[in-house]
Amino acid sequence: MDGSILTDNLSSVVDDRVDEGMFRVDRAVYTDEDIFEQEVQNIFEKCWIFLCHEDQVAEHGDYFWTEIGRQPVFVHRQEDGSLKCFVNACSHRAAILTPFRRGNAKTITCRFHGWSYSCEGACIGIKNEEPDTDRSKFNLREIAKLESYKGFIFGSLSPDVPTLDDWLGAAKPWIDLMVVQSPDGLEVVPGSSTYTIDGNWKLQAENSVDGYHVSTVHRVFAHTIAARESKGEYTGIGKTEAGRIGGGVPTASYDLGNGHMAIWAEHTTPEVRPIWEAKERLEAELPPEQVDWIMTKGRNLFLFPNVMLMDNPSTQIRVMKPLAASRVDVSIYCIAPKGESDKARAGRLRKFEDFYLTSGMATSDDIAALEDTHEGSLARGSKWSEFNRGLDSITYGADDDARALGFEPAACTDNWDHEVLYHGFYRHWLKMMKGER
Amino acid sequence: MSDLQQDVTNLIYRESSLLDRREWDSWIDLYTEDAVYWVPSWANEEETITDPELQLNLIYLRNRGGLEDRVFRIESRDSYASVPLDRTVHVVGNVLIENESGDEIEATANCIIHTYGKKGGLTRGSLYDFNLRRVDGALKITRKKITFIDDRLEGPIDVYHL
User: Fold this and answer.
1) What stretches of A276-362 show up as alpha helix (H) in DSSP?
2) Chain B contact for A104, CB < 8 A?
3) What is the predicted ipTM?
């Protein structure tokens, strides 16, 4: 079997010889079901996984049901304001305990045989309980680790993980760039969209920080917006920003370590961005380097292995749930600074709807490209994908922009067309696949 | 069948036929310049969002220019998701006139949309809420709200899939 040969010899699928001018990945990493099984067990069930944002579980009793790898869990806001995350399965017969993906229940009652649990997870009721039952052995099981970084909640099924702070590392200042935009923090705007891609989750990960495709796949988006604007129908913050799609603006890409990746491209029309109204306030509140990053650089951040944070024309949380080697669910949310004006909020949402969403005019094109890429990866006659663009431009450590913001990437280049950031992704992928920490 | 019921039903049938037959310009002509085209996202399993301005929509176009953007992109043949174009068949039913006031009419309808494309066949459903207006004797669409009942979406969703 091809698959078992590959999982026994994983180093053969990541051909890492940067010193010789070669970094390439066997496309079987996208298509091989044995590799996928190993990813679920060695990556998704052994790693910090983004679960939800604190705004989605704001009040006592609020719950959010999601999956870590394939395992159902729910985050539950406690009476004292803290958070717990439980396995989402009744201790009796495993029925899912939350009727909705999101809801509020200060006690949870299983709809199958009526067992009930307190918000803290204690088993507090067993229907027709028999004498001398020890309810405590039926308490809900908490997952091994749960931590929040400035509102972004992560959990791990494995206790053997670094602290969340260490794990996020150089990515933290990128998250901060979103968080500091309002003194009251961020909120998740009502409504969301989930779509299923017939393609491997790593293709979605790559695409989210791939600057190189923008001027081809999204050329039509730029042309569509140019045609719209030539009619003069939208002005000011109502405009959708498409100027940087054609290229010709400063850009950069970063391997942030631990498999995290990021890119930015300079905004051509920062004055149409929803955050523009807050420019003076931010300049008064924040260090000038941070304001400069917020106002001038449109950013895509990928946090290994399952979440992307976008702050470019609009702002987005994009969460992946891998289903199979060839299937991944993606859920997207608009995240926004609390307290922004209705005009800015509407502008942010219209830009979101223009570009993102499988019903939008750009993400739909990305998905089609990903699905074609997945299908093409089945061709074993051409089995290598090279990630060599930018090899001659690598800076190990920080560039001037990174120093200004205060983060230390593993490597970076001064062009979002470059592919060096993926080296960090696949090196970390390989490390976790081999069971190394 | 009353003349009004006949006119409203014909208009709604005509719209779905023009989408299925790719007669984009004639489709856009069914809408007034100030027409609103709204597809809310789902807020949870049972309810869509209710405020299109300040909540997230799947599509929210605030005038006919928004429809023209969509057609521009489809006709460019440069959209990865739109080449090749999925085939669609809309089957409209349950056309009901809900209100009539002067030249303004409110109507609802249901639609089953069968799509065939790279993923094979998909059958999905929409609830339509129309606001119509008589303009120079002909009915035009001033607002169309589409409640697309599918939530976990397969493949691209454009105006002809809905």
Assistant:
1) 279-285, 288-296, 342-355
2) no
3) 0.97
